[in-house]
Amino acid sequence: MAEFPNLSRRGFLNGTAAVGGLLVVPGLLTACSKTDSGSATGEGALDKLRKQGFVRVAYANEAPYGYLEGKELKGEAPTLHREIFKALGVDELKPTLSEWDGLIPGLQAGKYDVVSAGMAITPERCGNAIFSEPEFISPTALMVRKGNPKKVTDLASAKKAGITIGVMSGAVEGGYAKGAGISEDRIKTLQKPQDGADAVKGGRIDAFLLTGISLRWLAKTNPDTEVTEPFVPQVDGKEQFSPGGAVFRKGNEDLRDSFNRELKKIVSDRSRYVQLLEPYGFGESEIPPQDLRTADLCAG
């Protein structure tokens, strides 16, 4: 199994990427070029992929979003994208490993066709690439000791119980906790997810605050813990959904639109969505609301 990632690199756990108002592809995106969206004969990007029989996808080896296990590409994004591209007549994903910071530059350079890494939709990224509609949202949850001795369910109950909360260094969850009125002396900073799990098990904190997706994955290797039902925190009255999606090169809007049509069929079918992605810790709480749109997100 792939090593659990440094989640703060994902973008939706740092200060700029996870703020509730979502991002929109700014204005009119770059016009389609012959190279990306069509040729002199009118052949589009999807036609090319169908003809060659595969789509080149980039992943960052970050579980549970996209990672290699043995020789098999697994995770939320590859699983979902494989299903979508098969429906579009492209049967194979050809993976390329990339450092997180190199995913979009590699896409722009034509090294692959799609980023399949659970990338958060942010205004900055929307300026450099085009995103699908949201594939998932990332509600927050609490990891607690088995049995949930303090009986906490969300930040309001955590404040009422006077418990000590752990958050990752540089992550937005610290702001969520402060925004809920939890005093700073009750908020402890940790460097990585396993540190949070260890602190919960050791009694140094009462709960560890992170996305439900990440905590459920972490709980698989920390059996003395459990994870509360996810909840959506608010900052200044705005819900913090933290959505992610597939990423395409500018000029490939037609390919993105075809992808979106198949994506909508899956996210509209709750049982199908859960069946596909439950092995990676995604459930009904991660299904994007129908009115959550990338065009509204990229606007910031």
Descriptive overview:
The chain is of the alpha/beta class and 300 residues long. The chain contains eleven helices and 14 strands. The strands form four sheets. A five-stranded mixed beta sheet has the order 4-1-5-14-6. A five-stranded mixed beta sheet has the order 9-8-10-7-11, with helices on both faces. The longest helix has 15 residues, at 253-267. It holds the Pfam family SBP_bac_3.
**Number of H- or I-type helical stretches:** 11
Q: What series of H and E elements makes up the topology?
A: HEEEHEHEHEEHEHEHEHEEEEHHH
**Low-pLDDT segments, ≥5 res:** 1-35, 37-42
What is the gyration radius calculated from CA atoms? Answer: 19 Å
Q: Order of strands in the sheet with the most strands? A: 4-1-5-14-6
Query: Strand count, sense and closure of the main sheet?
Result: 5 strands, mixed
Helix content: 25-40%
Number of strands: 14
